[in-house]
Amino acid sequence: MGEANAGDANVGEGEQPVAPSGTERVSVERDLLEQVLYAHHRLQGKLDLGLMVDFLTVELPQRLGLPAAELQLADPDGEIAALLPDRLVNQRCLRLGVDPFDLESLYVALPQVEVVQFGDERMFRLLAWDDKSGGAVLMPLIESGHLVGSYHWGLGSPRWEAERADYELLRSLTQSISSTYVRVRQHQQADQFTLLDPVTGVSNHRGFRRALGRELARAGRFAQPISLLFLSLDEQ
Questions:
Q1: What is the per-residue pLDDT for 23?
Q2: pTM here?
Q3: Backbone angles phi, psi at 110, to 5 degrees
Q4: Which residue, 95, 103, 85, is CA-closest to 211?
């Protein structure tokens, strides 16, 4: 019989060796790395604002096993709300119209990735609708040096001792989310102008055809009837 290893000296017969203390930490970093890489890939794909919000507030937190996530966006003029599907505008995981000064007050100093622990007064303004989060991760959305939004993860544990590697991954994710948000928003805003009559502000022929195609597809998907009302208006 060979000599026992020093690390096995205290392991009795039938017992399992205790994993090194760093094993769990490495596992956490690997899981986070995999999901951040996946997020980069998804954010670089073809998205609109609605799909981006769904990904950030539903799919990604589920993949990470987080209890909740929310997105707060500065939208004082309602321009962002106009670009989103109606089903999202009143969702609790999405807050629109947040004043930029209120967003800045969420961060201790300059907007940067932060972990907010249980007991911090900011938790009353973060994920207030969720009673399962004991802490939160804050990720600022920056456009041309200005804070335009804030993305938050709820943490199941009241204390998460984030390591330097975690912060590096989260910073790269934050940059990817920020650039995607700006790109997708600007694309949709430009596209919106081509769908509206510049004088009346109502949908033009191109906008009508797009809306009709969308409604026909929805009716077919749910096997529901659809009606179309045609009106001819003139000045007489």
A1: 56
A2: 0.73
A3: -65, 145
A4: 85
Cα–Cα distance measured from residue 175 to residue 6, given in angstroms and rounded to the nearest whole number: 46
Where in the chain are the domains? 26-193, 196-226
Residue 4 has pLDDT above 60, yes or no: no
Per-residue pLDDT tens over the stretch 23-78? 555 555 788 999 999 999 999 987 889 999 999 999 999 999 999 999 999 998 88
Beta strands 69-73; 94-96: pairing state:
parallel
Separation between Cα atoms, residue 147 and residue 114, nearest integer Å: 15
Domain over 26-193 is classified CATH 3.30.450.40: yes
The pLDDT assigned to 12 comes to 47
Question: What pLDDT score was predicted for residue 10?
Answer: 43
Distance CA 224, CA 210 (A): 19
